[in-house]
Amino acid sequence: MTALITDDQRTVLLANGRQSLEEEGFDPAPVVKLFTPDAGATWLLTHIDPDAPDHAYGLCDLGLGCPELGWLSLTEVAELRGPLGLPVERDLYFHAEKRVSAYAREARQAGRIVT
Q: Residues with Cβ < 8 Å from 54, sequence gap 6 or more?
């Protein structure tokens, strides 16, 4: 799991998780992008539940044409393998340019996450 998210990213994700509990309608920019290099899955994570640090929230796209906002288990994502056996990776060059709601709106229109 530590390979997927850096300590600095985890700090921001947890801070966003605390803020999401206090601020209704909280709409942060994604902090980290994860993807399967040999499949069509992509995740843009915005926050981690401070009471359950294995649970992250963000825009999830399993490559089936219906991306959605939701919760996921970081442990389960870390254990995933694509058809060639490659693990999930962190996009080292991803930098969010907008709020997650904008990514979600565009993803629904395109049928996939567009970054």
A: 1, 73, 74, 75
Structure tokens at 77: 């994502």
Q: Are 48 and 56 in contact (CB under 8 A)?
A: yes
pLDDT at 1: 41
Residue 12 has pLDDT above 70, yes or no: yes
Structure tokens at 92: 């080292």
Helix/strand/coil for 96: coil
| pTM, two decimal places | 0.94
Q: Classify strands 89-90 and 42-48 as parallel, antiparallel or unpaired.
A: unpaired
Mean pLDDT of the chain, nearest integer? 95
Q: Is 76 helix (H, G, I), strand (E, B) or coil?
A: helix
With residue 11 as reference, give the H or E element that holds it.
helix 7-22
